[in-house]
Amino acid sequence: MVELTKSPRVTIVDHGLGNLFSVKHACNKVGLNAEITNSKKEILHSDAVILPGVGAFGDAMQTLCRLDLIETLHEFALSKPFIGICLGMQLLMSESTEFGCQEGLGIIKGKVIQFDNPTDDNGKILKVPHVGWNRVCHIHDRKREDTLLKGLDNNEFMYFAHSFYVKPDDPDVVLSVSRYGNIEFCSSLHSKNIFACQFHPERSGKEGLKIYRNLLKMI
Amino acid sequence: MNTIRIIPRLDVKGPNLVKGIQLEGLRVLGKPEKFARYYYENGADELIYMDVVASLYGRNSLIDIVERTSKEIFIPLTVGGGLRTIDDIWNVLRAGADKVFLNTAVINNPDLIKEASKIFGSSTILISIEARRKPDGTYEAFTDNGREKTGVDVFQWAERVAEYGAGEIMVTSVNNEGTGKGFDLELTNKIAESVPIPVIACGGAGTVDHIADVIEKGKADAVSIASILHYNYIRHYKLEDDYSGEGNIEYLKKQKSGFSRIQDKSLNEIKETMIQQGINCRYSSEETVHG
User: Fold this and answer.
1) Cα-atom radius of gyration of chain A, to the nearest Å?
2) pTM to 2 decimals?
3) Which terminal Cβ of chain A has fewer Cβ within 10 Å, N or C?
4) Which domains, from first to last, does chain A contain?
5) Would residue B235 count as lying in a domain?
C-alpha cells in the first residue's frame, strides 16, 4: 500500500471569537492543513499551533482557563512550532496592564502595555487603536534565517490592528520593531520554537503569506 | 505622518457589483469577486463589501460572496449592510470577514456597540455613519443608504460611538455620495478631530485631488473609494460574464462609457500621487497586474 503524503497539520486554537477563519484560509492557501479547534487532544497531536485572536486580553485568558487549555499550550510550546498572532502574541507574555494587571500564559517573560498617547512629528496625538499598514524593521544583526521572517525584506509593510503591544524582558527575543509615531514597539519575536507577531500575516498580502509558507517548510 | 489607507468599496446586490448614481439608481458593473481580486493584486490596503439590499442569507447571499473572496484575497475585508444581531456578525466573520460595519442596528440600539466590541474586540466593530447636511448647516444621521431619517445629530453620535467601544468610524456624505464632486471636508474633519479612533472617509471622490484633500484637510485616516477605481477597471476589461436578467445592465451593454465627473485611476496611479504630495501610504512601484 502506498502511504499518502499528509500535509502538515496546524491547529488554530479556538478561544472564542477572532479572525480565526482568515488564519485558516491563509494556511489552506499555502498547503497547510488547518483546523480550528479547542480540543486538547487535537492540539497535542498537531505539527504546529497558532494562537490567534483579537479582543480583550482578560476575556481570552479566562476562556483558555475555562477550556482548561493553559497546561496544554505550555506543553506544546516546549517543543513544537508555536505561533502567536496579534492578541495571541500578547497572551504569551507574563502579564498585561489591560484593566489593572492580569496574568498571561508566561511562555515569554515580559509585559503587555497600552499605547500611551503616541504623537507624530508635530506633537499631534495619534489615533488608538493603531490600524493599518506599518513597516516591520529588522533588528540589526539578528539572524532571521531560522525564523518565520526568512526571505522578507527589511521595512516590509504588514497590517496591524491593536491598542496594546508587548515588551519582552529579554531584548534578545525581539525579532523586529515597528514605530507608531514616537513609540517604537516589538512587532515580532522569536525564541527557540516560538514565533509571535503583532501584525496579521494572513491579512498582509503576498508578503504576509510568506510567513505561512515558511511555517510549512519548517514542519 | 501616519500611513493612510486606500480602501476600495464594493457595493453588492445579489451576485453583482453595483454602483449607485444619484438620481439614476444602481448600475450593474460586474462580479464583485473579480474586482476584489484585481484590487488585492494591485495594492488595495483593505476592501469593503457593502450589501445594498441587505440580503445576508439565502442563495447568492453576501455570506457566499464573502467566503469565496476571503479564500483568495489576503488583506482585511470589512463587511456590512443589513447586519442586525450578534449572530449576523458571527456568521459574516465565520465566512472570512475580518471586520464588520453596523448602522441601522446600532442607531436603534446603541448598546449593541458595547456588546459586539466586547465579544469580538473593538477593532472588529466599525460604525458606519451616513450623514446628510441640512439647510441650516447641521448634519443628521440617516440609515438605509441615506433614505431613512433618524433625528440623531451626527457629531454627537460619532462621539458616543467611540465611547461605546467602536474600533473605527466610516463616515459617508449622503449628499456627495455617487456625485464625483469630492468629499465633504467639513464633515470629515469635524468627526476626525473629535474622536480618538480612526475615521474612514466615504462618498464623493471623483478625482485623485479629492482623495488628497480629505486626508490633508479632512484629516481622514483612511479613504474609501468606488467609482474612480471601478470605472478604471472596467475600461480595461472585457465583459465576460452573463448578466441577463440581473438588474440594470444598460450601462455595461453601452460599451462602458464612464461617468463624466469621474476621472478614473488605478490604485497605483492614486498612490503615486499621494507619495508625490507627501502623504504616506503602502506603495510599491511595481506595474499593474492584469488578471
Assistant:
1) 17
2) 0.93
3) N
4) 9-218 (3.40.50.880)
5) yes
